């Protein structure tokens, strides 16, 4: 078997690799230099934009500068390693496969563009507390692909930027103050004006409740077992920990204030009426009342009443005389 052809091919490949090796080593050195240079450019951009109020713009510009420097480094490295490669050939290659690449990376490009717009418009910022659908927490990072939030129970949620850009997002810390509310029920025999006055006094005495806007207490419902009064108060800052702390102290103060002045705090009650649903006409759909209370007029008796009446009628009926047997003839 003749291996000369294969040997010549392997020998030629080895010579080509040795000829390419200096360019390959030099290209790697150049790429590493661009990698460090990209980090330096990112730090430089962050230093120039750190005095701006828009933290999102700072993040966006530094990341774009980093990515642009890396892309330039890759092009220079490929040009060094493969001298026949030119940017024009890259553009022509992208033109051929651009449609396929666009379909393959549609979601990635969509999230990237949404991330850029979120960083520019800043509907929310880092450390803001937001709510999106069933997720609520503190914004940890806004990346070009997704935004990560830390939930209040210590979990991380990664949300694609396109979702946050298209759908509604509640920013709980967008403003410096926030209003809280809670419904409290008092008895129907209690004086509403007195209860409202006591509730407002209790809220004003709680540390952290703002005097302006002033606390309020308004009647919102005449419920089945109570008159519901809604207590409303404002706090600053509006973060989750402050909300829970303020609500704890306000509800404790209101409860103690109302009970100390004899205001009833009733719990829900139910009244159950028991009656006989069985009637003589059970099975007759035209007259059966299905357990509803008897109305005026001719109402069928219940089965118990009918049976009682039958027993009474049997007791009141006179006994019928029994026929006497004929006497036997004398022997």
TrEMBL record:
Q: Which SUPFAM superfamilies match?
A: Mechanosensitive channel protein MscS (YggB), C-terminal domain, Mechanosensitive channel protein MscS (YggB), transmembrane region, Sm-like ribonucleoproteins
Listed Basic and acidic residues bias regions: 279-288, 303-331
- List every stretch annotated Disordered: 279-331
The membrane-spanning stretches of this chain are 20-38, 59-82, 88-105
Predominant location of this chain? membrane
Q: How does it sit in the membrane?
A: Multi-pass membrane protein
* PROSITE patterns linked: UPF0003
Q: Where is this gene product found?
A: Cell membrane
Q: Which InterPro entries match?
A: LSM_dom_sf, MS_channel_C, MscS_archaea/bacteria_type, MscS_beta-dom_sf, MscS_channel_2nd, MscS_channel_C_sf, MscS_channel_CS, MscS_channel_TM-2
Q: Which GO terms describe its cellular component?
A: plasma membrane
Superkingdom of the source?
Bacteria
Q: Does the keyword Membrane apply?
A: yes
Annotated Gene Ontology MF terms? mechanosensitive monoatomic ion channel activity
| UniProt-listed Gene3D superfamilies | 1.10.287.1260, 2.30.30.60, 3.30.70.100
The residue ranges of the Mechanosensitive ion channel MscS C-terminal domain are 182-264
UniProt keywords (A-Z) are: Cell membrane, Membrane, Transmembrane, Transmembrane helix
* Mechanosensitive ion channel MscS domain location: 107-169
Which family would the database say this protein is a member of? Belongs to the MscS (TC 1.A.23) family.
Question: What's the protein here called?
Answer: Mechanosensitive ion channel family protein
Which species is this UniProt entry from? Hymenobacter nivis
